[in-house]
Amino acid sequence: MKKLLFVIISLTVLIGFGCGKNQTPEQKKDKTDEVKTDNKSPDKVVDTKKEDTKTDGNDLGLKSGLPADYPKDIPVPPNSTCHGSIYNQSEGTTVTFVSKGKPMDIANFYKEELKKNGFQQEAGSDELMNEKGGMIKWTKDKRDVEVMMSFKPESSETDIVLSYKEKK
Known about the structure:
The protein is of the alpha+beta class. It has one domain (2-166).
């Protein structure tokens, strides 16, 4: 229960501070770092610019765009825009996205795609998902992947926090 509370708080902090709401007008104009997906091929990156060293005006050190070493076997969420990433040695890499998809559709997308790529879903993680959001976890070899989502009804968008790390 403590871990779930920590994840929810982390998700809230990352989304609240990492979504670029505190951007200067110049940063708002410069959206070339965003990575978008194509509706027909959700795992295909349309804008191929990856990582930039600038931050989005936040105290967390969130870098714009996907990390340069983003794993090829972890797809980008469908119909999404990447807002940035942050690396923490003990927690791994966290990437934030916003999608026009609904949480359950995104969860089903990840279940299918990650299974195809050799990941095993953690038992019982389906119980942590509903139409408002939640969390699902997967494992492959020595890597863990967590996808946390929160639906925003006012904008019909889903905030997504995807984390991956090597197991010790």
